[in-house]
Each structure stands twice: as structure tokens, then as C-alpha cells.
Amino acid sequence: MKFLRDILDKQHPKFAKGGKLEKFYALYEMADTFLYTPGTVTKEASHVRDGMDLKRMMITVVVALTPCILIAIFNTGYQANLAMDQMGVPEASGWRETVIALLGSGYDPSSIWANFIHGLLYFLPIFLVCNLVGGFWEGLFASVRGHEINEGFLVTGMLFPLILPATIPLWQVALGISFGVVFGKEIFGGTGKNFLNPALTGRAFLFFAYPAQISGDQVWVAVDGFSGATPLGAAINGGLPAIEKLYSFSDALIGFIPGSIGETSALACLFGAIVLIVSGVGSWRIMLSVLIGAMGLSALLYFVGSSTNPMFSISPLWHLVIGGFAFGLVFMATDPVSSAMSETGQWIYGILIGMMVILIRVVNPAYPEGMMLAILFGNICAPVIDYYVVKANIKRRKIRNAQ
User: Fold this and answer.
1) Which domain-ending residue is among 165, 183, 214?
2) In this model, does residue 49 exceed pLDDT 50?
3) Residue 64 domain-assigned?
């Protein structure tokens, strides 16, 4: 790859200070450091205590997300092929059908190849639009501010497509990621300065601006006219029996259920949690505290029961494997920028999110998911939580020193 290194080195003067393309240095630096280790390194003692940097952290998150992405692609195609098999939907003349015909994969829900290809044809356009549009805003703000493009968008560009329905129009994907990047992060100063998770900010914007394309029974399966309720959607009227009538616990655990593209597999999220905890990238305190808060309150409501609200009948274990709970617990609540920083604060922050998601799901069944709003609420509270935790620590130290 020496020829590529030589090409980049020859182009460097054009982008360096005083060069013709100085304003686009951020784009050059992004490509250079993505392909190679930075050429400028610290020559003096830097007091480095850890081999972790922002790029390595983001790459670790991408590795942890890989099983979710693979199951997301497969399940999107599986749900679509299963629906077409049940309904006998005639093949349309769109570009996806043309590609499927050329590849000869067909629409067989029992075929791994057919499911993967069909799912990829829905996931890939969403993923590309998200990264191209979001990358444009990242590059624009980096060029205007004169700083490097941060690797933080690499994770946002992975997370945002996974929390959308497969049927969402691509222009709404572009609008959502634009809102998340610009208003959720860049106006606060960029990566490391935002107090809200950018991916969830964009998702919340789409939910409230275009509810018809982000909610309801007809958005979760990529077949026109097919109504496929998510487990939580089915539970609104019938509780746990309604869920078990449609889906088995093992299907919900693996991820073979309707839902947002990448949120359906609790098993894939478990793999991601192990990777993040072992690598030290994700906080085990936040994951455990979210789990404690959600399981504790859901168990209480389950045993109390209700004759008027069927959502009370959902057991704690089912709450773990349906909706976006597992995905949000592992990949969203643990965002190191928008979550609490202090150790005590992380416990409070996690328990708050866990209890909030159950309250929204069970007590307010008009919005059965809850995880997105619970995490955003936790993001807003995180700075206040840390403030009072630090203030209490200082007070204890003053008392201890005075004795």
C-alpha cells in the first residue's frame, strides 16, 4: 500500500495551512488517519496510562455492533419474505425485485440467502443515506471550525439506521440524521460536548414530526399493506397472552420479530455488552443499574397486576427481549458523552432510565416502547446527577478533613 501512502503525502501540501485547499483539510485528515496511523506523534513523555483513544473506542463499538447488524439484515428480509409467503403478494417491478430476480435469491423465508439479500436491499440504502448526509454535516462543521473530523460519527452512522423501521422513506432518514447531528451535537460544539445522544435525538425528531412513518403496525415489515405488530404493540390490548400467541420467547431472544431494523435481537446485544465491558468502553455500572431499575419496577407491577391495564401482565424477562430495551441498555444508555460520569452518578442514572422505561411502557401504554424517551430523559438529568454527586463528595471530604 506504499503507492497510496505516496499519493496522500503528495496531496498534503494542498490541504496544509496556506495551501489551495486549506479549508478542506478536515476531509483530507479524515481519509489519512482512517487508512493510516497519524504521522505526527508525541515526542516527549506524554504520561499515557492507557492504549485507548477515540478511534480505537469507536472501532470497538462497531465490532460490538456487528452481530446486531447481521441479524438486522437477516430479520428484515425474513419478516418481509414471511409476509409475502403468507399473503401471496405479487412481485412488483421495483429496483429491489429486479436485483432479487438477477441474483435468483427469490422470496423463500426458509432460505438464509434469500432473507439476507432481501434485508440488505432495505438496510443498505438507509445506511448509505445516513452516513453520506451525516458525514456531510460533520465535514461541513469541521471545515468551518478548522478542526479534524471526529470518529464519533462512525458510531452514530451505525446506530441511527438500526433504530429505524425498514419502510421509512429515505428523505426522512436524511432529515432525521441531519437533525440529530446538527441540533443534537454540532450546535453544542461537536463530539464530546453534546449532552444528548445524537442518534436518539434524530429518532425522537422523526417520531414526533412523522409519526405515521415511525409507528403503527404497518411500518415494521417491509411489505406494502401488511400489518405486523411488534410484541409491545400487540400487548397493548392483550398483554402477555397476546405476545405469546404471536411470538415465542426464543424468537424474541434471537431477534426474529418485527421491530426497528437492529433492535430486535437481545442475544446480539448480549454479545455487544460483553465486548464493551471487557474492553472497558461501556460502563458495566450503567448496564447493571438500568437492568436493576427495570427488572425491579416491572416485577413489582407484574405482581401487583391490573384488571384494566394488560401491560401489567408482561413479566420482567419478557421486558428484556422485546422492544429496544436490550439495544438501548447496551449501546445508547452507555454513551460516554451523554451519560453520567461519576461512579455513583452512573448507578443513579441507570436506575432512573430503567424505572422510566417501565413506567412509560406499562403505565402509559399509548406509547409502549419507552426506551428512547427514557434514555433522553436520563441524558438531560445526567449533568445534574453528577453535579450533586461531586458536591456531596466535596462536602464529605471537608467534614473528614475537619475531624
Assistant:
1) 214
2) no
3) no
Q: At what angle do helices 343-358 and 371-402 cross, to 10 degrees?
A: 150
Lookup: cell for 307 = 384488571
Domain tally, the chain: 3
With contact defined as beta carbons under 8 Å apart, do 172 and 304 qualify? no
Whether residue 91 is found in the same domain as residue 174: yes
pLDDT at position 114: 93
The whole-angstrom separation of Cα 36 and Cα 52 is 17
Element (H, E) at 253: helix 249-254
Distance CA 142, CA 181 (A): 12
Confirm whether 69 is domain-assigned. no
Is 80 within 8 Å of 100 (Cβ atoms)? no
Nearest to 57 by CA among 154, 195, 185, 161: 154
Domain identity same for 10 and 112: no
Q: Domain check: are 109 and 193 in the same one?
A: yes
10 lies in which domain range?
2-35
Reported as a pLDDT band with limits 50, 70 and 90, residue 104 is confident
Q: Give the separation between CA 347 and CA 340, rounded to whole angstroms.
A: 9
Q: Are 148 and 26 in contact (CB under 8 A)?
A: yes
Handedness of CA 309, 313, 315, 320 (dihedral sign): negative
pLDDT recorded at residue 2: 67
Q: How far is CA 344 from CA 79, 357, 387, 390, 399, in A?
A: 42, 21, 11, 9, 19
The 10 Å Cβ neighbour count of residue 14 is 14
The dihedral through the CA atoms of 214, 215, 221, 222 has a sign that is negative
Positions of E strands within 305-346: none
Assess if residue 79 is contained within a domain.
yes
